[in-house]
Each structure stands twice: as structure tokens, then as C-alpha cells.
Amino acid sequence: MENPSREEIGRILKRSRRIAVIGLSDNPARTSYTVSQAMQASGYEIIPVNPTIESALGVKAVSSLKDIEGPVDIVNVFRRSEFLPEIAREFDEINSPVFWSQLGVVNEEAYSFLKEKGYTVIMDRCIKVEHALTR
What we know:
This protein has helices spanning 6-15, 31-41, 84-91, 108-116, 127-134, and strands at residues 18-22, 45-49, 55-56, 59-60, 74-77, 98-101, 120-122. By secondary structure, it is of the alpha/beta class. The strands form 2 sheets. Strands 2-1-5-6-7 form a 5-stranded parallel beta sheet, with helices on both faces. Strands 3-4 form a two-stranded antiparallel sheet.
């Protein structure tokens, strides 16, 4: 597994505006919330994807990626690694060029599936940290 260079990650973040966050919690103490809150404060539109919550960060949650209207620039995943193959298959059904899994979230099967289909795949990287490093 190989992530894009930091320079390429910076370019991805600069051209992106809409981030769907799978597993975004409505609990301000959770990492998914604080990371997404920071990205929202930096000007990104955050779309919570979590069937167990009503909303997060003032935005109504959707149950799945397929419920999102319009294009998504990045899908950022805050789920355990074993869920990535299923999430990757759902990701393949929407119009998004970048699949991103957070720090500690890696799955070789999902990575290979997405790379073979030509997607940009970033795994085991915190989007908030990468944003701060590439401004």
C-alpha cells in the first residue's frame, strides 16, 4: 500500500470542498467529531454519513453514501479496518475521486479494489493533520 505524496495530498485538499465522513459521531468528545469540526471550520462542507445519528456539526446525517445529493470530493472513513471492503464497494457506486481512511484504518483488500478501479486512495492518515501540513 502506498499513499500519494504529501504534495499530491495538498493538491487534493486544495481542490476539494465537499467531504462525506463515514462514521461521524455527534459526540464532541469523539475524534471523528473534532477532526470534522476542524475541517468544517477550514471551509469544507462536511456531510455526516451515519445511520445512528440525526445530525452532527449542524448538518443532517445521511444513512449511506448513496443518500448524498450531488458530487463528493473526498470520502473520509472513521470506521474499523474490517469494514473498509464493504465501504469501498459502496464508494465505487457514487461519484467521488478520493477514498480516505483515518489514522490506524487500513485494509489491503479495500486498497487493491479501489486502486484497480483508478481511484485515489489514502489510508492511515489524519485528514486534519494533512490539511495543517499542506496549507
